[in-house]
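pasting for ref
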Amino acid sequence: MRQATPGYTTGLNPMKYKKILLVNPHIPGAYMGPVRPPEGLGYLAESLHLNGIEYDILDMSLGYKLKDLSARIKAFGPDLIGITMWTYKYKTAYGLISAIKNAHPGIPVVAGGAHVSTLRQDVLRDCDAIDFGVTLEGEITLAELCQGKEYADIKGLLYRRGSEVLYTGDREYIDNLDSVSFPRFNGFQMKKYFLKEMLIISSRGCPYDCIYCPVQMSIGKRLRVRSPKNVVDEVEYWYDKGYRIFNFADDNFTFYEERVYGICEEIERRGLSGLDLRCGNGVRADRVNRKLLERMKTAGFRYIAFGVEAGNNKILANLRKNENIEQIETAIKDACDLGYDVTLFFLAGSPGEGWQDIEDSIHLAKKYQITDARFYNIIPYPATELFEYVKERNLFLYEPREYLNNASAFDDVPVFYTPELSRADRVKALRILKNVRKGILNRALKRKLRPFGIIGKIAAILFSTYFGQLLMRRNMIIRRIAEIVRYRLGRRT
């Protein structure tokens, strides 16, 4: 165990940190690669700037190595290093933090992100190179830490006192999200990201009780929203910088129907034309209707994803989705009829799901003229009802510490089983579902690329395969060409 260094790990004599280096670790095998700048660090950077704290940023997903990080530390001379963490490949992040601490023992490290918000004290116990942890919404907590406030008085802070790891308790969530400055990404290497697309987070929180979702651990159960004016201020800021593609990453973008109407009206009032607006994180089918979808379409929305999860009401009830298959089908049909690019998100291997239920999901995925259907290997995350369900019944195929580091919703490795589906059944089901997705993608790409004749047919075959999808995700030039083609074709609808 590394010994606590007086001044920043003992809980006594808190220091002021005037310069902080923000680090986004490279995650080996990450599904999407460096698509966009990390939004969470963008919010933190903006908060630091407004509080007079100097920052620099190194996004290691852009190809930077440990030697590059060390060089940046020496050149910038931070007195605090902040690192964001996901649970997937968390041991890689631990290794990076330990390497930083070995090379620069005098600089404290603060970690944040979903992994810290979910596992709290366990993170600092597992990795003794981490000096502080920031949970939940970190903008105020990190600023107060840098300003030298007493540790015990900073809500949302994990810190060390001798051999103890202390937590000050959850910070109250920010009610007025309009008071939180949206990211400007000053100092970020914007030209190095795959897409010229800006992610917009227009709300925080989720009021639902889905048994598999860990989101509430990091953004809370109470839904808080930004005003239409504030949301479109962000859109216009990036519009003036040449951006036209905006992806709303909310978990509940359409929850308040009137707010969505307000955003559409504000976009048109400001004359922001030629937009490609997307709801790529998935919206609830019971929170849209045909009239709303029509209004969104006229304002520039062209892509929408629905979190379907299952193909029948039995499994939806097991997942506690609090919506039914009839609502889901109506929303899918309306979106397809209106010309949206539609993606459906499914879970594979939910509690109670058997082969007939999987067939129901396949039938639903094939029923409508959608763009994509993604079947995710369901993962039990700590602090979810699903995790407790699997734990109580001793259904784990791997220890949580192992699968949380190695498993991904995009992998074909089941991490638990159920009486309805054995491990072998789950492997088979995931393989079948992968082929179903391939067929749906192929048909959708053929429709989209029909104007390109034989070249379009060849491209459709290539990019509906696993290799083609991987190539498009990992190669910046191919990805950008694909996005330009998709954007221009989308403008015709």
